[in-house]
Design a protein that fits this description.
Helix content is 37%, strand content 19%. With 643 residues, the protein is an alpha+beta fold. The protein has a 9-stranded mixed sheet with strand order 1-6-5-4-7-3-2-8-9, covered by helices on one side.
Length: 643
Amino acid sequence: MKGDMSKQEFQTEVSQLLQLIVHSLYSHPEIFLRELISNSSDALDKLRLLTLVDDKYKALVGNGIDPPRIDLTLDEEKKTLTLSDTGIGMNEEDLVSNLGTIARSGTKNFLAQLSGDAKKDSNLIGQFGVGFYSVFMVSDKVEVISRKAGEDKTFKWTSDGKNGFDIEEVVNSDGSAGAEARKSAGTTVLIHFNEEGAQYANSWRLQEIVKKYSNHISFPIFLTYDKSEWNAEKKESIKSRVTEQVNAASAMWQRPKSELKDEDYKELYKALTGDWEDPLFWFHTRAEGTLEYTTLFYIPSKAPLDLYQADYKGGVKLYVKRVFIMDDSKDLLPQYLRFVRGIIDSEDLPLNVSREILQQNKVLTSIKTASVKKILSELKNIAENDPEKYAKFIVEYNRPLKEGLYGDFANRETLLDLIRVKSTKVEGLTSLAEAKSRMQPEQKALYYVTGGSESMLRNSPLLEIYKKKGIEVLILDDDIDEIVFSSVPKYGEIDLKAVHKSTSGDDLKDESTPEKTEELKPLLEKIKATLGEAVKEVRASSRLADSPSVIVSDEDEPSARMRQMMRAMGQKEIDEPVPTLEINPDHEIIKKLLADPSNSRVEDAAWLLFDQALLLEGVPLKDPATFVQRLNRVLNQSISTVA
């Protein structure tokens, strides 16, 4: 007999998820076992930590808590598989929370990211923490029987994955625990295979899946099944019930690198992340001395889908003396390395370390500092020795590395070597070191341009003098480039200069610039008087070759494009700096205006020169109607003159 049954509906997102998983991701149903074993491993990790640091749970060991293990029990005739663990377990509230609803915002992201590509979408299941529901790809009924550590009630959750779920307490008529009730903490999942799932009611197939995905789960996984053996005396095959351990159950990262093969590293990576693809590369380090710790870091071949989301999930698991502590801390590596996956295993941290303590812990700070340097130095080594593979890395992770330039001052020079940028001199991407090697003899700085799309920047009038003199300009068209590079004054001993700043290019002036400025003075004064407070200054330009005008900003002022971005991010109170207008003394328009600065066309020309310079900077005009009227007047006068 059982206790009162509670019939409940799935949360809306769960219902959507179940439909999508069952109908869209059928190409890879074997992941159900990977996900269930992963859940059991997490439950065992949580309980093991509590038994080490919490007196309440220490007292339960051997009396309510069994040794950590995962058991698979196969019944080929009934087409059922039972997966049982001795982990933390769940009570009624936990069952509803964990199996009936999904609180994490990533679920909606998961639903939005589904592409229809079964292999890619199967990978998403593990990334977004919704793996339990994959069991409904292979079953028409699932029963979850669980008892939470420290509690004396067992609850049973049942569902067909379609019509909600039932929860009941498992009790006998006399009020004692029912036959299905667990005697100790943990969770049992009973899977009734459907027609598609029947292929997994096979001991050999189950062993293959465990070795493929879960071989390095740090707890033993046992499989109980009917084994057929040939009896020579009776000349017949005899079945016997056997139980065998089917995984290595070792902390692989603690083994010497000389004992490990590439396949070992790849297996562990896939078990840790749920990724289908092999990692791009990995870095395995064992430190001994003042601090003892082991790190194993992986770089995924594709950027995690939550890479640019505020609630991204940390990818590094923290262990202390092989005991799992946490896997969602964002303090283990700096934010710009949030794409790194892997393990930190310390011999020196306390087992009961909390998130708050982590932030101030000197041991972890030292490990973190050393780990960052190790990751970056390994990346630099790959960049130098395997540029083809590094190019694949850059496609996915160039932008996060640029983020590091803004905050990681200690590693800025290494990061400057690692990032890649576009350029006016080469196709594709280049390094700053390569750009430096191409500098002209008279060149005193590395120049760059920011503030728009690649096509807009390449056609900017700001580049004209550099093109004329054969000087390379770096094209920084990523929307974070201006923020980042405005804080980076040098690359080694070489100045980094933005070409839109007022002093940039001063070293490129020719000897005739002062003479031209003096000759242009009456026109400059007339244009300044016309534009008034719209410009800070009007002056002759030494950076223009083909265009008549351009606007520039002071060294400490954000560009017009930057101000637009700041407003888009919610910064309403932004002072509007007044730009400087530069005009090209050698341009035909300027020469004609200079010939008669008192003529009636100067006023319209002044505003048109200013407005077109703004447009080329990607700045919307405040008064487009007036701009059009001026343009029409000038066109009309021009046509009349021709006629």
